[in-house]
Amino acid sequence: VSLLEDTPTTPTKTSLNDATIKLAQSCVYDGTEQKPPVNVELNQRPILQQGNFTVDYENNINASTEAKVQIVALDTGMYSGGTSSYFTISPAQLSIQSVKAENRDYNGTSEVRISGVTLGGVCSQNNVLDDVKVTVPQGIVGTISSANAGTYTTITFPEETSFQLSGAMAKNYT
Q1: What does the pLDDT look like over 85-141, one tens digit per residue?
Q2: With a threshold of 0.85, does the pTM exceed it?
Q3: Of 58, 165, 170, 162, whose CA–CA distance to 123 is shortest?
Q4: 51-77 burial string, b = 16+ CB within 10 Å, else e?
Q5: What is the sign of the dihedral through the CA atoms of 92, 96, 98 and 103?
Q6: Beta 27-28 vs 82-90: how paired, if at all?
Q7: 114, 119, 104, 98: which is closest to 169 by C-alpha?
Q8: How many whole angstroms separate alpha carbon 22 and alpha carbon 42?
Q9: What DSSP string runs through 49-78?
Q10: Is 40 exposed, middle or buried (0-12, 13-18, 19+ CB in 10 A)?
């Protein structure tokens, strides 16, 4: 009589190498790590993260098209391998917080020469305000609501006005 030994079989794991990663939300620069939730599909079927794979991110702080998300199968799950995908972190939109106009003598016009602009919406990283500055075009003239002497709170820029951003973090803004 011969006894057959039961040989344990290892279930075949499904590879995640051809999985598709889709972001659940878009990303805009805010000075912090962007870790958007991911939806993972394999053969057009969703795969839940819990117990199946880990999610890691790289280059995911500054505005760029090179932010990366990577999934890697857990050894204890039903899957093997992994895949990655690039995503975009869009630049943040700046606003003009205040404008400084040069004082002038009454000249009968509503034009004022602009001498400075303060930006609103600048972010910080590690509690340090981003290095981003705006250059006011040389000789730019705005208009106020009246030619009369007084204090004005609104200055209108010409439509074609284009400001140049500079500084180490300027690429994170529009």
Answers
A1: 999 999 999 998 888 888 888 889 999 998 888 899 999 888 889 999 988 888 888
A2: no
A3: 170
A4: ebbebebeebbbbbeebebbbbbeeeb
A5: positive
A6: parallel
A7: 119
A8: 11
A9: STTTEEEEEES-SSSEEEEEEEEEE-TTSS
A10: buried
Contact by Cβ (8 Å): 158, 141: yes
pLDDT in tens, 39-64: 999 999 999 999 999 999 999 999 99
What is the residue type of 27? C
How many helical (H) and strand (E) elements, i.e. helices and strands, does the chain have?
0, 16
Cα separation, 74 vs 39, in Å, equals: 17
Give dist(CA 155, CA 112) in Å, integer: 8
Burial class, 169, CB count within 10 angstroms (exposed 0-12 / middle 13-18 / buried 19+): buried
Name the β-bridge partners of 64: 89
Beta-carbon contacts of 126 under 8 Å, excluding residues fewer than 6 positions away, are: none
